[in-house]
Design goal:
four-stranded antiparallel beta sheet, 12 helices
Length: 437
Amino acid sequence: MLVVRTVRVPVHYGITKRKLSILDSLTARTTYGVWLWSKLFKEHKLKGSYADRRRFYEQVKVDAKLGSLTQCCFDTASWMWRSYREAHKAWRRNVAIARREGRHGWLRKLLRREPQEPFTNGMNGKVPIWFDSRFGAIEQSEHMKLCGYVARVSTLRRGIKLTIPLNPAKYHLDPLEQGTLKSFQLVKRHGKYFVHVKVESAVPDQPVYAVRGIDLGVKRSIASVMLKPNQPLRSNDFSIQTDGLKRDRLNRLEKRVAELRRAKKWAPLKQIRHKRLHVSEYYDRLAAKQVATTSQNCLVAVGYPKGIKYTNPTGNGKPRQRRMLAHWTYGRMIRYIQEECAKVGVPAEAPDERWSSRTCHRCGSRHTERITQSIFHCWNCKLIYNADFNSSINIGSRFLPKATTRQATDDLAYTGDEQAREIVACKPRSPHPLMGG
Ligand SMILES: [Zn+2]
């Protein structure tokens, strides 16, 4: 398996003022180039093809005085428009659904969130472009005492390259040394330059002997079930990773923010503005790493709960559920799990799990209900089961040749899990259920 990673290396603090000013004007000019291309994309409804590029290439090259970097700017503009068009298409589809089904709350929300064309707000900040091997390289330098790595990029003056000293940390070195460098970006964040390097490396594929179905719950972080073809489930095939630590820290942070707000201490408030995000990212990354390292010889299948935030609009009488969803970033979690699994050669899939939480894993019926948030009941075969594990089994089963493990899963979901033990004491809610749960 070929894995592409992006390594974010800071530019060395010892870089000269002169070089910095060259960098500033280079990135300003390429941003202008991207903007120029973007304008052409809008005016002529370009698709990003080779012919499109040829048609306006000379014009942009002369107008923006970009030289050969015109190409990179075209690629970036083309990418921006492609993603915009895709996002807009998905948005239009959702609006149509919301209109047809009369879901006004969702519609109102959607209308506020129409994807914007590139550069709608003018040229706010810089747009980094990708330098590939034709326009730049990351090299190990023997001459420079300052650091081991430099980035060399084409400048606006023909034939002249700029050497930028880098300041890689220890953990940057492995990927830089072992992988093949594909391309890189010059990115300015908070007044400092970084080089984002795309590195491709080969990770040996692990043989797959089992499927690990994972359900990202709202209440408990990660529930997973290991499914092996032609083998009954055992108690240690079930696992729960809770996010108690993360929640603790976030709660404490929130308290602190509230205190500072009451006291109107804006300066310290500003300082911890991004902390919330960083804390969640840190714990999510940690959890994803744990999934990856405990999934040897598995195919990891994480349920992708599409549209779950939208289908729970405000005022649907479930404020508690909404509150929990508000801070629940399954998209990021799935991305992290896929990234971490790729690093160790574990294949990871994210199927659309629309029905996985409603379907009974034993008989396949959707004639089911939730007795509580965490307890699942099937009207068809009378199964009462841990809801998270039920979803996990459904998600994982999709990748098995046949759902052989179904009969054997009874009772096992209770083991090693405090919350699941309560199941035994539960009764179905009503004797006359509605279809679909
Ligand atoms: Zn059933």
